[in-house]
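RECORD TYPE: inverse folding
INPUT: structure tokens
STRUCTURE:
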């Protein structure tokens, strides 16, 4: 009993230490005047206001930035899921020459830093394809995610081969097998891939900053960076305005995790096989 209490106490302290920066960010976004002292974490109600959100929205269009981030992130997630599922299924279930070498290349891609590819990608997409200041130009470099391919492959490898053999005997093709047999059993992988993919493009700064020059096309992360570097000093409460922008940027990611975290459970993949 004492060991359980000690475990919960340690976990509670760790959780509070992890959550405190997020709490302080929200509190800082609501302060009329910044208070860097310890008491600033528990401000007096008279020092609370929503004016910081109005101030930053007046300098940058928060709704437009959120829309751009949503379109950018949604396009990346769509490509990640579609191509990740197809490639993962092919690498795990289908038998074809060069499968192991292809998977080795997928793993190799993960050790190549994206910054190393940015210059040729920028030349290719902006100059050759003319896709600068466009959603497609932002999305294309992230449309296929090798990490998602590995995740789906590993989940598909856990599926009992008897399920696929029985479906093939009944005359099901590979796409029918994928849609009706495999996908329903790997829903945790789908949610994992969506959440892991969401964080990357939602917080991505460097590539959208390079490929977009029009403020109306920039995701919120880029708009906030421009605000901090060029406009924040002219606001009444620069600290509060920056915290307000950070809260707006972080809120969708936090909400998505809170909504879907209960689905991160393992399926009994062998339950579909009798005997």
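DESIGNED SEQUENCE:
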């Amino acid at each position: 009993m004492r060991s359980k209490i000690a475990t919960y106490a340690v976990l509670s302290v760790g959780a509070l230490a992890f959550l405190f920066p997020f709490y302080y960010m929200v509190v800082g976004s609501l302060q009329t005047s910044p208070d860097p002292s310890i008491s600033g974490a528990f401000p007096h109600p008279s020092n609370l206001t929503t004016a910081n959100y109005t101030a930053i929205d007046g300098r940058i269009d928060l709704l437009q930035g959120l829309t751009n981030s949503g379109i950018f992130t949604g396009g990346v997630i769509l490509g990640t899921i579609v191509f990740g599922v197809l490639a993962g299924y092919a690498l795990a279930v289908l038998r074809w020459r060069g499968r192991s070498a292809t998977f080795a290349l997928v793993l190799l891609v993960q050790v190549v830093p994206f910054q190393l590819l940015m210059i040729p990608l920028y030349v290719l997409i902006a100059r050759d394809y003319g896709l600068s200041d466009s959603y497609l130009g932002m999305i294309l470099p992230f449309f296929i995610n090798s990490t998602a391919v590995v995740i789906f492959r590993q989940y598909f490898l856990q599926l009992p081969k008897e399920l696929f053999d029985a479906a093939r005997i009944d005359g099901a093709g590979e796409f029918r097998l994928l849609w009706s047999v495999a996908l329903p059993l790997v829903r945790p992988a789908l949610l994992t891939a969506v959440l892991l993919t969401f964080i990357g493009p939602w917080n991505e700064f460097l590539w959208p900053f390079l490929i977009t020059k029009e403020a109306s096309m920039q995701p919120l992360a880029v708009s906030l960076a421009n605000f901090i570097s060029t406009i924040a000093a002219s606001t009444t409460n620069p600290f509060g305005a920056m915290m307000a922008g950070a809260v707006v940027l972080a809120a969708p990611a936090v909400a998505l995790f809170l909504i879907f975290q209960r689905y991160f459970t393992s399926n009994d993949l062998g339950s579909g096989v009798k005997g």
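NOTES: Confidence is low (pLDDT under 50) at residues 265-275.
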